[in-house]
Amino acid sequence: MINHEVRTYKSSEDLPREEQLAWKIAEVASDPVAVDADVTDMVINRIIDNASVAAASVRRGAPTHAREQAQTHPTKPGAPVFGLQLSERVSPEWAAWANGVAVRELDFHDTFLAKEYSHPGDNIPPILAVAQHAGIGGKDLINGIATGYEIQVDLAKGICLHEHKIDHVAHLGPSAAAGIGALLHLPTEVTFQAIQQALHVTTATRQSRKGEISTWKAHAPAFAGKMAVEAVDRAMRGEGAPSPIYEGEDGFIAWILSGPEARYTVPLPGQGEAKRAILDTYTKEHSAEYQAQALIDLARRMGAQIEDKSKIRKITIHTSHHTHNVIGTGANDPQKMDPKASRETLDHSIMYIFAVAMEDQGWHHEKSYAPERAGRPETVELWRKIVTTEDPEWTRRYHSTDPDEIAFGGRVVVEMEDGSVIEDQIAVADAHPHGARPFARANYVEKFRTLADGIVSDAEQDRFLDLAQNLENLGADDVAQLSFAVDGLEHTGSKGIF
Question: Could you tell me which Pfam families the record lists for this protein (predicted)?
Fold first, then answer.
């Protein structure tokens, strides 16, 4: 990997494009280096993972509305939309939109946490949609997805967005544009312009994940993917972009991030170096914010030791700065303690999540968020006894790059009314690559079958899994079928402009 220093330049300094971050990203995308076998396997895993959570969410409101919007934009050859019959095709940017919402709706797919947060699986819907529309085979699709993951992970390692209250999808627009550029074997110049356009139009604030969290949380990455497809389309037609988008005097670093004096270091593969960043990412066993994954596992373990949870006086979760301030009591969001809060808000309340996981000895993507579950009196009582606090050591481990030190969990202290104390800790989720039960292909397949059960027919599940697991050998016609249909899928009949 090569570390690239990125800073603001005055217009009079005339920074050559070859020294601009967007150009260097585009060079990675246009590098024809082969994809390693273990990366190919993980790309397949994540395609299955995305389809799993899309199946589970396909009948929910946000994915349904996004799908209805997409249906008003039919195109040939086009791309399929999760849930619709495979013969129904829509324009690729709208397929990216609808499928992106379905994938993100339950907050149940993969994650990468570094200086910035990310869900790199959000790259798959736009890249796959373009491949299906453009008649691209499996090997090129794998390269495109591996590239999207590489760029998003590398940007997340080097540039923090959340400290400026910028949503993490600002890294997704450029990464998806780069992945599409790699997929289509576009010249560096074209991908360079698309990356800049994509960043420019996908920068938004983090209010979508603050306070009363709405369904826009699922739409935000889908919008970034849709914008990436459109940016590549414009760039292929010869349209340019604001440049230099990162380093310009009125650019991203100078006015959105830390200002003209700031310095960032972004690692990128060198020429001929394989794109392996997808192997640094990890998926979710539980449908909740990633920082909750390990704590759900710990709650199950600790809850089994306490027969009468009404005797608990207080629970303190000692954890990282991010967990405390984003999904803990450090966020100072009263909505996180409200039994009538939205599913999206409860998903970002570790107090609620820990209480339910303790009581139920598990976590379910629907039942655990049901209004009647959230409103259970004994749950509300336990929930409101839970507080979080930042522990500098857990914050340090959260940001560590050492696989043996990295931690997304915490230490939990349970104080009982009789004065006794129960204490335990966990570093990473059981399903994490360094956890007690790391996810492998069989787990991804099981996750798909579990979440698709009762929604996608067994025959359709088999057909999809057979295609996905043979991705490297698929021709364009088979890639075009890489979706699933749901029989009897109903729509709301809602009307907008389209």
Answer: MmgE_PrpD_C, MmgE_PrpD_N
What pLDDT score was predicted for residue 346? 94
With cut-offs at 50, 70 and 90, classify the pLDDT of residue 118: very high
Distance CA 345, CA 327 (A): 9
At 477 the three-state DSSP class reads: helix
The pLDDT tens digits for 363-402 are 999 999 999 999 999 999 999 999 999 999 999 999 888 8
pLDDT at 415 over 90: yes
> Which DSSP string do the residues of 107-139 spell out, in sequence order?
T-S-BEESSSEE-GGGGHHHHHHHHHHHT--HH
Answer yes or no: are the C-beta atoms of 40 and 470 closer than 8 Å.
no
106/495 Cα distance (integer angstroms):
24
> What is the number of other CB atoms lying within 10 angstroms of the CB of residue 122?
28
Cα end-to-end distance, the chain, whole Å? 46
In what helix (H) or strand (E) does residue 316 lie, and over which residues does it extend? strand 312-319
pLDDT at 494: 81
Distance, in Å, from the CA atom of 77 to the CA atom of 86, rounded to the nearest integer, reads 11
Kindly compute the dihedral angle of the four CA atoms of residues 60, 62, 65, 68, in this order, to the nearest 10 degrees. Answer: -70
In this predicted structure, what is the pLDDT of residue 212? 74
**Paired residues of 312 in beta bridges:** 416
Q: How far apart are CA 441 and CA 431, in angstroms?
A: 12
Alpha-carbon span 55 to 280, nearest angstrom: 25
Separation CA 422–CA 409 (nearest Å)? 17
Return the closest-CA partner of residue 389 out of 303, 329, 346.
329
Length of the chain counted residue by residue: 498
Structure tokens at 288: 């909740």
* Contacts for 485 with CB less than 8 Å, ≥ 6 apart: 83, 84, 85, 86, 456, 460
Per-residue pLDDT tens digits for 299-351: 999 999 999 999 999 999 999 999 999 999 999 999 999 999 998 899 999 99
- Among candidates 125, 124, 105, which has minimal Cα distance to 59? 105
Query: Is the sign of the CA dihedral 314, 319, 321, 327 positive or negative?
Result: negative
362, 369 contact by CB (below 8 A): no
Domains, the chain, in order of start with CATH, read: 2-280 (1.10.4100.10), 291-426 (3.30.1330.120)
The four Cα atoms 111, 96, 252, 20 give a dihedral, to 10 degrees, of 90
